[in-house]
Specification:
Layout: E1 5-13, H1 16-24, E2 29-33, H2 47-59, E3 63-68, H3 77-89, E4 94-97, E5 112-114, H4 123-132, E6 136-138, H5 145-154, E7 158-165, H6 177-182, E8 199-202, E9 208-213, E10 220-222, H7 227-233, E11 237-240, H8 247-266, E12 271-273, E13 278-281, E14 295-296, E15 318-326, E16 331-333, E17 343-347, E18 353-362, E19 365-368, E20 379-384, H9 386-393, E21 397-410, E22 413-420, E23 425-431, E24 435-436, H10 440-451, E25 459-466, E26 472-473, H11 476-497, E27 516-517, H12 526-534, E28 539-540, E29 553-558, H13 562-565, E30 583-586, E31 591-597, E32 602-607
Parallel strand pairs: 1-2, 1-11, 1-12, 2-3, 3-4, 4-5, 5-6, 6-7, 7-11, 10-14, 21-25, 27-28
Antiparallel strand pairs: 7-10, 8-9, 8-30, 13-21, 15-16, 15-20, 17-18, 17-20, 18-19, 21-22, 22-23, 24-26, 29-32, 30-31, 31-32
Helix pairs in contact: 1-2, 5-7, 10-11
Length: 609
Amino acid sequence: MKNLTSIELLAPAKNAEFGVAAINHGADAVYIGAPRFGARAAVSNTIDEIASLIKHAHLFRAKVYVTLNTILFDDELEDAREIIWSLYNEGVDGLIIQDMGLLEMDLPPVPLIASTQTHNASVASVSFLENIGFQRVILARELSLEEITEIRKHTNVELESFVHGALCVSFSGRCYLSQAVCNRSGNRGVCAQPCRSSYDLVDNAGNIVAHDKHLLSLKDFNLSSHIEALMDAGISSFKIEGRLKDLSYLKNVTASYRNEIDRILEGKPDYAKSSSGKSTFSFTPDLAKSFNRGFTKYNIEGRKEKSGSFLTQKSLGKKVGEITHISRDWFILTGDALANGDGICFFNENDDLTGTLIGRVEGERAYPNSMEGLRVGLEIYRNHDHLFEKQLQGETCQRKIKVALSLKEWEQGLILEAIDEDGICATVSIDIIKNSAEKVDRAREQTIAQLSKLGDTVFVAGQISIDTAQVYFVPASILNQLRRDVVQALIDNRLKSYKVPQVPFVPNDFPYFETNLTYSANVSNRLARQFYTRHGVENIEPAFELIPHYTNKVVMTTKYCIRYQMDACPMHQKSGKKFDEPLFLKDSKHVYRLSFDCKQCIMNVIFED
């Protein structure tokens, strides 16, 4: 049998309830926060909650990965080790980590996944992680298709890529802005998101180039149009960001990517989804209708698009049209029709995002709660689609595993056999007196109809056959009992037959690709230092969180470039526009100097005061 390339849709799980919803809406895997030490401290989960999610996931051959991806201090190492063993004992499919100190400990044979916080952006870094025993690497979000293809060319480890959701403007794991300004470390799971705040951009002469703008805030990632290209480049796991998002976001986005991946897989006979069952939806997914700040493909095609969201850090939703007519208390617009209860937003004359609710709609006329700021020609966005959100509040999907049923007989009665789409089998029997049916065709139809009633189970009936010597009259109560028993037996057999990956970690001394590490390596404990020393590193600075002073330290390194955003890039734009540099960002308390490395096409943010 030909080996197929397994393709995984990976969705976020704020908690077990959200994880179940993600799987039901088509996710092949979910990632969820550990009880402690996850990069989203606000969404940690108990071992019992994770265990309940694992059971539901494994029923569909879906996987559960747990994030334990903060950096650790010395007094936290043992707690982290105990959590890892507890997760292993519950059958977790993989552990997402950042801190290399964990690799110096006695770990269970659980597959290790290198978090994007380890900044996996080069052949050298990914190759190192593969050679020391990681089973998967989550690639940096800044990479282009060309760079991903190059990494795949020189490595064999599984590659995971973010494809949707909020973007960290900095290289993941290398942002220290929150720690510098409010002692809340992103690498410790408590980022305050100062990148979403507003700043002034000031030139060397003190002139304000941009005032009170969200100069470090990015639009949201959307690579839905690049899924097939990413598959061809070597990505096997497609990750949705959003463990802090609401349930309607999770349902809509997961369903949208499920549909897109399934469409692509139909034309790729060498590829297959990595889980079982088919999800059907009672709504039409639409990415633009969920939280977004506008969409960007970021650098997937190289430096070709402006990805910043200067005017707002809030959700815009979906553009619905422009106002064509306006009166004292109503307006008419082109494009999609509005509905009672919709929320709309727009940029006013000062470029401030503002909005209102739609009180009622009569024909083409929309009557908002406030007319302030509305004018002919204004672009209107719908950031709350009332009818769509109402749809998403109820039951929105079913995920079903196809099963073939066969009614057979033995001397003492009847046997019902079930074989599901994965070849898992279950058989139950019942003792009854067999009476031949007087009306054979009707009895056959009734038997098939009764056996096919799998409505509230995870199964859907495929082929149903009656393989008995003759057609018997079987009471509905007997058929119902056989059906219930075989369903439970099949569920038990599916769970028993699921093979949790067992991958022992064996330490080695494969050389690291650098001999000197700055604080950007995030070495925050003695075991992490021990790890890098064993792999040939000679000089190791402590993590940013452990240094006493931040002045003149780089607190952010990013592919995003303010000069490019403002048409002043000397490498990719020909406007001739220049600033009196250096440029500075200023907020009410701090000053940050910007430096530009055009050779590598990166921008550094340096904490000055």
